């Protein structure tokens, strides 16, 4: 087991570029193009939402920690980068990923319990017995090359926002980055033990709750396969500070509710513009933060964009300055923000019944429900 994300199998083998991920998925569809044409499925983000809701349903029945649910979702994503979904019974794979994740997160559940709860949760499509789940577990571990240790953003969030640093906390700056340039999660240089973690940016209880919910939401996207956990944590901090919904909308923000998704997306786009982090921004730190006090690119004033900044420097401006002084690759944070905004927009048209019907069609049509 690697105590550091920088030396982990997660970074070395399971942190992909967008192009690598796209090519892997396209290859799977091309190899099984007849099945793809015969059994169309909803777009991937809608499937991600559906699978997340199903894992949560199983988790509520068994009662396990949130991190085990997150680990199960990542296992599922990794598995389906190597196996075409229409070749499997997703409910069996989902239950197996959940069973394995509980083991890895040290909250093991008996295999009989998982099988029994799976049959109760999906009575029409999950008829597996203990041996079938055991065989699927072996295949899942083999497909993932037994690379099962995960580093989640939850710990990074605590390290980045807690004023008293955990003495065992890992550095979120790339220890291989010996200069002061933004680090990328794809770098692979030699180790430099002298690197230090950035100064913590304390959050209010409300902001902490929103950041935690944002991390939960990111598992519904491909971001766990694309970015380092500390980049996700930074993104969650930015969103929590940039978006402070009212008591009415906060009930839906980051919790999976479709209501208010478009409003949050619009607010997030406004925050991006005001922070000088719009889609037209550059990838380095300088372009985003040349005017940290005013929060708009090119020396513009945030107030002119309709923002309100109490005091000489708003809290969002302080966050932007904090990011500018860190070694985080800001273009990666921007990419994560935009992906989450897109997720919340897509959530508006998520229909669990439609997803379930389309999955049931190929599971029953190919006789996979009896597996």
TrEMBL record:
The keyword Manganese is annotated on this UniProt entry: no
Presence of the UniProt keyword Glycosyltransferase in the record: no
GO biological process: regulation of transcription by RNA polymerase II
UniProt keyword terms in alphabetical order: Cyclin
Ranges for domain Cyclin-like: 53-142
Stretches the record annotates as Disordered: 162-205
InterPro entries listed in its UniProt record: Cyclin-like_dom, Cyclin-like_sf, Cyclin/Ssn8, Cyclin_N
Pfam families (alphabetical): Cyclin_N
Superkingdom: Eukaryota
Alphabetized GO MF terms: cyclin-dependent protein serine/threonine kinase regulator activity
Compositionally biased residues, Low complexity: 171-198
PANTHER family, A to Z: CYCLIN
Family listed: Belongs to the cyclin family. Cyclin C subfamily.
Name of the protein: RNA polymerase II holoenzyme cyclin-like subunit
Biological source species: Aulographum hederae CBS 113979
């Amino acid at each position: 087991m690697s105590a550091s994300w920088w030396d982990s199998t997660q970074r070395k083998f399971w942190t992909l570029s967008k192009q690598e991920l796209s090519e892997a998925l396209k290859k799977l569809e091309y190899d099984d193009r007849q099945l793809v044409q015969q059994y169309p499925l909803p777009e991937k983000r809608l499937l991600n939402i559906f699978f997340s809701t199903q894992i949560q349903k199983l988790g509520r029945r068994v009662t396990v920690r949130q991190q085990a649910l997150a680990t199960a979702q990542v296992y599922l994503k990794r598995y389906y980068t190597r196996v075409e979904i229409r070749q499997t019974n997703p409910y069996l794979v989902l239950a197996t990923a959940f069973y394995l994740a509980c083991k890895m997160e040290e909250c093991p559940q008996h295999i009989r319990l998982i099988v029994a709860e799976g049959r109760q949760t999906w009575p029409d499509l999950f008829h597996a017995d203990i041996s079938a789940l055991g065989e699927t577990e072996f295949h899942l571990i083999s497909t993932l090359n037994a690379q099962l240790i995960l580093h989640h953003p939850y710990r990074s969030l605590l390290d980045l926002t807690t004023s008293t640093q955990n003495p065992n906390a890992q550095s979120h700056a790339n220890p291989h980055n010996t200069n002061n340039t933004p680090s990328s999660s794809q770098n692979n240089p030699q180790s430099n033990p002298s690197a230090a973690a950035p100064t913590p940016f304390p959050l209010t209880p409300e902001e902490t709750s929103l950041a935690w919910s944002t991390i939960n939401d990111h598992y519904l996207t491909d971001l766990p396969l694309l970015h380092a956990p500390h980049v996700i944590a930074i993104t969650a901090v930015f969103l929590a500070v940039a978006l402070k919904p009212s008591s009415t909308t906060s009930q839906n923000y980051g919790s999976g509710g479709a209501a208010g998704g478009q409003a949050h997306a619009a607010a997030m786009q406004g925050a991006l513009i005001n922070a000088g982090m719009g889609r037209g921004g550059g990838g380095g730190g300088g372009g985003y933060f040349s005017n940290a006090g005013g929060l708009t690119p090119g020396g513009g004033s945030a107030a002119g964009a309709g923002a309100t900044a109490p005091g000489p420097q708003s809290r969002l401006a302080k966050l932007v300055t904090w990011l500018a002084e860190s070694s985080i690759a800001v273009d990666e944070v921007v990419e994560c923000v935009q992906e989450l905004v897109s997720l919340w927009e897509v959530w508006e048209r998520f229909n669990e019944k439609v997803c379930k019907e389309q999955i049931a069609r190929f599971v029953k049509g190919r006789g996979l429900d009896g597996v």
